[in-house]
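Q: Give me the 3D complex with inosinic acid.
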Amino acid sequence: MITLFIATRNAHKVEEIAAILGPQFRYLKIKGDDELPVVVEDALTFAGNAAKKAETIARTLLLRGAARMPATEPGKFFVLADDSGLEVDALGGAPGVHSARFAAIDCGMVGNSADAENNAKLLRLLANVPQAARTARFRCVLALVEVDRAVPLQSVRLFEGACEGWMDFAPRGKGGFGYDPLFIPLGHEQSFAELGEGLKNRLSHRAQALAKLGAWLLA
Ligand code: IMP
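A: Here is the predicted complex, encoded as structure tokens.
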């Protein structure tokens, strides 16, 4: 069975990835005592950040030697990293790669902002923008690297997905995370936070990127 080491500390993303890809893969995730580096996401693109995360974690695991590598059968596995975010057309594509720390960048704070603060900032910036001009999309880039002790690190493979929609005037719904309460996917009238996990996991940017990745892994 193919093993995927999911290089994120966001538990919600791990759950979404496993729910979408299903039981034909085995999933490993970063644990508190793994001593893996925290990768600074300073690239200008989702692809750059995803590739940096996957390569850094894969190289660290490979350099550790057999004793501290995840035990897998066969003796190789893939590191999978995701970088994703929201692009709002009326804001020139912002928050983009800054999606997780959109509110914090105003005050020069390091680290991510609370979802409610990011959503409040977005609503403030879009206050005078009419519905027709509130178009947006979630974008996801997945980076995959094979880790095999017998060979040098392979190059990163990228898979991309996007989900078009628009930004509502107020948050709606309790599900999901991040900007889900504000995002209405095209062809629907409810937000991602109202539509529920099952439907979100069929429509989302991550679902589309994962469908491409799954097809490549199983080909
Ligand atoms: P990352 O962990 O650096 O990829 O940050 C992604 C950020 O983009 C998250 O913290 C959310 O704010 C936003 N985001 C990405 N995917 C989603 C999603 O599926 N729903 C809502 N917000 C998302």
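A quick observation: Residues 3-218 form a domain with the Maf protein fold (CATH 3.90.950.10).
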